[in-house]
Each structure stands twice: as structure tokens, then as C-alpha cells.
What does this fold into?
Amino acid sequence: MKDRLYLLRPNFQDKGDGPFFCAECALVEGMLSFYPDLRRRVDVTYVDFVRPRPAIVKELGAEHQSAPVLVLANGATQVPATVNVKKSNGKSFIDNEHEICNYLAAVHTVGRPHH
It folds into this structure.
């Protein structure tokens, strides 16, 4: 089983204004574009901005439906000490864009964001 990454679809409306894209999702999307092989190693799902977000709710519950979010595969290892892994519905996940990128970099031995 692969890690599952949820990102917001771009060009969404918020309260009648837009179009927008999610800046946090864009950081992770940029990493996927720099390292195309990551897209094959991780299941990437795009979800709508409007809540509820059924795919994420099904995995983590209604209280954890922010994006981006990376749901870790069973037996995920190599989690860097700087990455805060949370748990919900018996699943481990990361919901911070920088920590998602740091995790992916460590697990897949690619570059990580420089801050």
C-alpha cells in the first residue's frame, strides 16, 4: 500500500470570490513536479475545496479534513524527528505542507525544501 496524498483542486471559489489555488498544496505540488517519480510512488487524490471532503473524511474523520494531508501507509517508517505524525481513525497522517515535503524527501531520497 502507498502513502495517500490529498490536495485541493485549483481554481476554486470561496464565498463567491475566486478563482483561488491553495498555496500550501502548491508547495507539495511543486515538489511532485520537481520529482515526477514521487507521483508514481504516492497515491495523489485531488479534492474539492467545499466541505465536507468525503475522501478525507472517510480516512480521518470530519475533524481532520484539511488539505494538504498525507495519510501514511501501514508500517510507514523513516519518519524524520522534525515531522509531527498525527493519528485519527487508526491511521497516521501529516497535515503540514513543509512536514509532508520533509517526510517525502526522507522516504524517497529526494531534495527537501530549503527555508
User: Anything to note?
Assistant: The chain has four helices and seven strands. The first strand starts at residue 4 and ends at 8. The mean pLDDT is 95.
